From TrEMBL:
Protein family (similarity comment): Belongs to the glycosyl hydrolase 74 family.
InterPro entries the record matches: WD40/YVTN_repeat-like_dom_sf, Xyloglucanase_GH74
Record keyword Oxidoreductase present: no
Domain of life: Bacteria
CDD domains: Sialidase_non-viral (cd15482)
Protein name, entry field: Cellulase
Signal sequence segment: 1-24
Gene3D superfamilies with a match to the protein in the record: YVTN repeat-like/Quinoprotein amine dehydrogenase
Keywords, alphabetical: Carbohydrate metabolism, Glycosidase, Hydrolase, Polysaccharide degradation, Signal
Organism: Novosphingobium decolorationis
Length: 757
């Protein structure tokens, strides 16, 4: 963007005086000297996709050109670096996963370097206010007594956190469940505002239950003491106002009718407040909405809804922005309006007339081509965030459920061009991935956007997994001796998969072909069988000749899905692991009979393996989650060399599952994977997410699990929201980490940190 080329004044020399607990002291135990001696230094980078998830809030600094912040629902917060022309992640140093869900962001209206984050994923998780005086380079953290919901329904509301421009040490936070809160010492300490009329509805029971609560706090910077608070709960007024800095409050009478909730607001230089309203807190389930303006000078409301009446399309309004140069220039976004499409509406006369921008807009998604989703990218959905640059009336941005779009032509006539504004943003959930023994070094399975073959980690892949396109890829496998052959399973967001949930590739994941398993009997309650829902995983033999599908009645095919036969001796709904060097052998756990089973004939028959040395209870390895990694992994470079996770323990068999020994040392393992071993080792490198001596981190072992080195550091933790860890069978030291919200991270040893044990 042209505006991003302006150089920002140097500020990186600023030092943060900590008003509370320092971040370094809050994200996990400080490593002891002995632990540091057992670490290996790594360089960390992201596999580029670009955007990919929901970032419901865009916040421009009101006092520094080229400065903006972006909040995400599960991947932390970002600052736009105008000099580098990319987004910079601000919270990769936290180890508490809940803090990666950002409820609100506040950019200081007095000191450009000061920024605050309200962080908390859900009502049962940790919640805190983070504050920085150096643009997010360093943070202080204050744990707070009110619950947040950065990844709950209503995450598009806001901004809930606001700074008083007449006294930037004073902040207000509108909570979901517990009323209005105030800090008078720059966010270090918080107290409830007892004078505020709404107490809050309390924290609801139930895993998914939540409230909208106090949806926004907005100061009028030109009127000292004036502050507005919106209400997105069904009881009480839509809007509350204080003229004395929050000492006293009044409900604003009149305005929108009952049944609508105030969700977002912005105040213009004319002091008029524009409010968007919906009949639900979203981002789904909204059926109607409105846009109203409140003029404090006249104590009057005006309905300026772009489309209203009985014939108005289904859906509501959420995003709202006003031009700093002209308070009559307004923009609002629709949400859940699929017919004809969600859009941004623009007015140059304070809402008297509106234009739907989708009719003259085009989007260039060449930098992140997955946004086409097999067709041409439409205007978007879940448009909760919308902003106009206060220093450039032509520069505006809005969010969708998958990206952020920006334009430099908001104030121009003719065709309006939009591009993804996501360089540096990786906001995706990775379900599974494989690093094959040949072809591309990484094949991924994502939530919501399917997954990719990654030929160049610095470039967003040209295509997704299609034919069929499954929004979630749940399992992936490759043939160890024929790595161009891959198989995958997945599901859509519908209850049943429209066509098939299985596919295979013979060119390393570039192209896919659907697999169809013969339909068996339905469940007694009439519900679909796993192959119709995406619950059935699929495994391929080492030579690529056999596919084995773990349906209720497991089946195998020797002709790439043209025909299928029943597997004998294999229980239903278990994860099967193929030997990567011996095409005859497959392995699984028979939980009903508490034993390891294996096949010697390419998956046609399974029988008990020796299992000698294993504990009597194998149930810690069981998971009913279709996205869970397989508990048994096979060495990609040696036949019969197996690894098994039981709870936090690792077990190793060098002889096809006949005999097992506990390994893993003193590491309590959560996730693990295998990679290329050291040159003098007969075991693969092991990589794991686990806890050792109180330190939860990413670890590497080069001696079969007897000794472990920490390979990440306190600046690279990604909230430790990690679904999968795996090494590369061809590159010693390379590790891939599938995060839940920060995309795919990969690491390589720094010079001098190679094959040291």
């Amino acid at each position: 963007m042209a505006w991003g080329k302006a150089r920002r004044a140097a500020f990186y020399a600023l030092t943060l005086p900590l008003a509370g607990a320092a971040l370094a002291a809050s994200v996990g135990p400080v490593l002891a000297r002995s632990e540091r001696a057992e670490s290996a230094s790594y360089d960390w980078q992201h596999v580029r996709v670009g955007g990919g998830g929901f970032t419901p809030g865009i916040i421009f600094s009101p006092i520094e050109k080229g400065l903006a912040y972006l909040r995400s629902d599960m991947g932390g917060a970002y600052r736009w670096d105008a000099k580098a022309e990319r987004w910079v992640q601000l919270l990769d140093g936290v180890s508490e996963g809940s803090f990666m869900g950002i409820e609100s962001v506040a950019a200081d209206p007095v000191d450009a370097g000061t920024v605050y984050l309200a962080a908390g994923m859900h009502k049962g998780g940790a919640a805190a206010i983070f504050r920085s005086r150096d643009y997010g380079a360093n943070w202080a953290r204050s744990d707070v007594p009110f619950a947040m919901g950065g990844n709950e329904d209503g995450r598009g509301l806001g901004e809930r956190l606001a700074i008083d421009p007449s006294d930037n040490q004073r902040l207000f936070f509108g909570s979901r469940h517990q009323g209005l809160w105030q800090s008078e010492d720059a966010g270090a300490n918080w107290r409830k505002v007892d004078a505020f009329p709404l107490e809050g509805l309390g924290i609801p029971e139930g895993r998914r239950a939540t409230h909208g609560g106090l949806s926004f706090v907005v100061f009028d910077p030109a009127v000292k003491g004036r502050v507005f608070v919106g209400n997105a709960d069904p009881e009480g007024a839509h809007l509350y106002r204080s003229e004395d800095g929050g000492q006293t409050w009044q409900a604003v009478a009149g305005g929108p009718g009952r049944g609508l909730l105030a969700v977002k607001a912005v105040v213009g230089s004319d002091h008029v407040l524009t409010v968007t309203l919906c009949d639900a807190i979203g981002p789904n389930g909204i059926t109607r909405g409105a846009v109203w303006r409140f003029d404090p000078a006249r104590e009057s409301w005006q309905d300026v809804t772009p489309q209203k009446g009985l014939n108005a399309p289904v859906g509501g309004y959420m995003g709202v922005a006003v031009s700093a140069q002209d308070p009559a220039t307004l923009a609002v976004s629709t949400v859940d309006r699929g017919n004809p499409v969600d859009t941004v509406w623009l007015s140059h006369d304070a809402g008297a007339h509106w234009e739907a921008l989708w009719t003259r807009s085009v989007r260039d998604v060449s930098a992140t081509p997955f946004l086409d989703f097999g067709a041409k990218a439409n205007f978007g959905h879940w448009i909760a965030g919308l902003a106009i640059d206060p220093y450039d009336a032509g520069h505006a941005a809005y969010v969708t459920g998958a990206t952020v779009y920006a334009t430099d032509e908001l104030d121009a006539d003719g065709t309006m061009h939009w591009q993804p504004w996501t360089k540096g943003v990786e906001q995706t959930a990775i379900i599974t991935m494989v690093s094959p023994t040949g072809g591309a070094h990484l094949i991924s399975g994502f939530g919501d956007i399917g997954g990719f073959r990654h030929d160049d980690f610095a470039v967003s892949p040209a295509t997704q997994h299609v034919n069929p396109f499954l929004s979630n890829t749940n399992t992936l496998d490759y043939a160890g001796d024929a790595p161009q052959i891959l198989v995958r399973s997945g599901n859509t967001h519908a209850r049943t998969v429209p066509d098939t949930s299985l596919a295979w590739s013979q060119d390393g994941g570039t192209n896919w072909m659907p697999l169809y398993v013969p339909e068996g009997e339905r469940h007694a309650d009439g519900s679909p069988l796993p192959e119709e829902t995406g619950n059935a995983a699929i495994t391929v033999s080492a030579d690529g000749s056999t596919f084995l599908v773990e349906t209720d009645e497991p089946q195998y095919s020797r002709d790439h899905g043209a025909s299928w036969d029943a597997v004998e001796g294999l229980p239903s709904r278990v994860r099967v692991t193929s030997d990567k060097r011996d095409a005859r052998r497959f392995y699984a756990i028979d939980f009903a009979n508490n034993r390891i089973v294996r096949s010697y004939d390419g998956g046609a028959h399974f029988m008990e393996a020796g299992g000698h040395g294993l504990p009597g209870d194998l149930s810690p390895a069981y998971s009913a989650n279709r996205e869970a990694p397989a508990p048994i992994l096979a060495d990609p470079n040696r036949a019969g060399n197996l690894w098994l996770q039981l709870g936090g323990d690792l077990w190793h068999s060098p002889d096809f599952g006949e005999n097992w020994d506990r390994t893993g040392g003193d590491l309590d393992v959560e996730r693990y994977g295998l990679g290329k071993g050291a040159s003098d080792a007969d075991v693969p490198a092991l990589y794991a997410l686990g806890t050792k001596q109180g330190v939860r981190a990413i670890w590497r072992s080069l001696d079969g699990g007897a000794n472990w080195q920490r390979i990440n550091d306190d600046k690279h933790q990604w909230g430790l929201r990690i679904r999968m860890v795996t090494g590369d069978p061809r590159l010693f030291g390379r590790v891939y980490i599938a995060t839940d919200g920060r995309g795919i991270v990969y690491g390589d040893p720094k010079s001098g940190a190679g094959e040291r044990k």
